[in-house]
Amino acid sequence: MKTFLAKKETVQPKWHLIDAEGQVLGRLAVKAANLIRGRHKASYTPSVDTGDYVVVINAEKVVLTGKKEEQNKYMFFSGYVGGESYRKLSEQRVRNPQFIIKHAVKGMLPKNRIAADMLTKLRVFAGPTHTHEAQAPVKTSV
């Protein structure tokens, strides 16, 4: 019996919809990362992007446990000397709530070239509406 290896041409991605309201950030990020990588499929091949598209709605209503809301900080760097700045997660939630989920999912993807392509399959929206109704995403529970 030969080992099956998926090819990029044979992969047929599906669309998944995840509602982040009331969901714990880490658990949601694990589910999204596995869907994006294609780990849930029998045809999963690590060296091929076999994953599906994921649409996350209600990003502003994601929940964190413990004191992470005030303790977690994101670092940004402008590229100039002394140009680094820090922002608490609570401040980031007000400014750009989509970044919180994208950053968490990015950290759970492999650190290689294929991960950059995988991350483009993640679509995050702050509110309950999204622009991918035409793709008919299937609601997925976390």
Distance between the termini: 35 Å
> What is the highest CATH level, the class?
Alpha Beta
Backbone CA Rg? 17 Å
What is CATH's topology name? Ribosomal Protein L13p, Chain: A
Secondary-structure element series:
EHEHEEHHHEE
Structural class: alpha/beta
Helix content: 25-40%
CATH H-level homologous superfamily name: Ribosomal protein L13
Count the DSSP helices: 5
Specify the CATH architecture: Alpha-Beta Complex
Name the overall outline.
globular
For the secondary structure, the number of strands is: 6
Mean pLDDT: 95
Structure characterization notes:
- The structure is a single chain.
- The chain has 142 residues and is α/β, with parallel strands linked by helices.
- It has a single domain, classed as Ribosomal Protein L13p, Chain: A (Alpha-Beta Complex).
- It is built from five helices and six strands.
- It has a four-stranded parallel sheet with strand order 5-2-1-6, covered by helices on one side. It has a two-stranded antiparallel sheet with strand order 3-4.
- α1 packs across α4 (97-107) and α3 packs across α4.
- The N and C termini lie far apart (35 Å).
